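Appendix B.2, paired examples.
Example (i):
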Amino acid sequence: QVQLAESGGDLVQPGGSLSLSCAASGFSFEYSKIGWFRQAPGKEREGVGCISASDGTASYVDSVKDRLTISRDNAKSAVNLQMNSLKTEDTAVYCCRYDTNYWGKGTLVTVAS
């Protein structure tokens, strides 16, 4: 069955960096586009970015595009989200998605001094 498991969430100070990982199984990962989403407290879930299957091209929403980098390791069936210059407004549960129906449980990122 399809499984997605995020890891790497932590408490980090503003301006700091954090790397999240999404480990996938149960589907043909190397042929699959994967998306990253986040849900801040009291807000709706929003897309952060995604990475294609074909050439590993990543795209991002404008609010994060200069600070976040999505990459994939097909050998490990994993997608990484590198976050730099973190802001308090980046505090959220971050989760990955495969297709439109499969979500991980998420990992909490808290940005606070």
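Example (ii):
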Amino acid sequence: QVQLVESGGGLVQPGGSLRLSCAVSGFTLDWYAIGWFRQAPGKERELVATISDAGDTTNYADSVKDRFTISRDNAKGVVYLQMNSLKPEDTAVYYCQRKGSWGQGTQVTVSS
């Protein structure tokens, strides 16, 4: 059974940092590109970042470029999203996604 489980969300002040983790099971992580998405209240889900199966290619939404970093450890079965210089507009539920499968999401709230 394919599972993706996000963790690491929480409440952080503007300018702070968080690292999200996406732990996968039920499939071979090495074979799949993974994406992080987010959905703020009243807004559509949007793509934040993607990483290729080997980890050698990454892409970012313009709104997070130079602040967020996606990475992966295929041996551990985990994909990370390091988020720095967080802004209130980064507040959302963050999801990881493999083609056809989603995690349950983790809440990130940026507020003073």
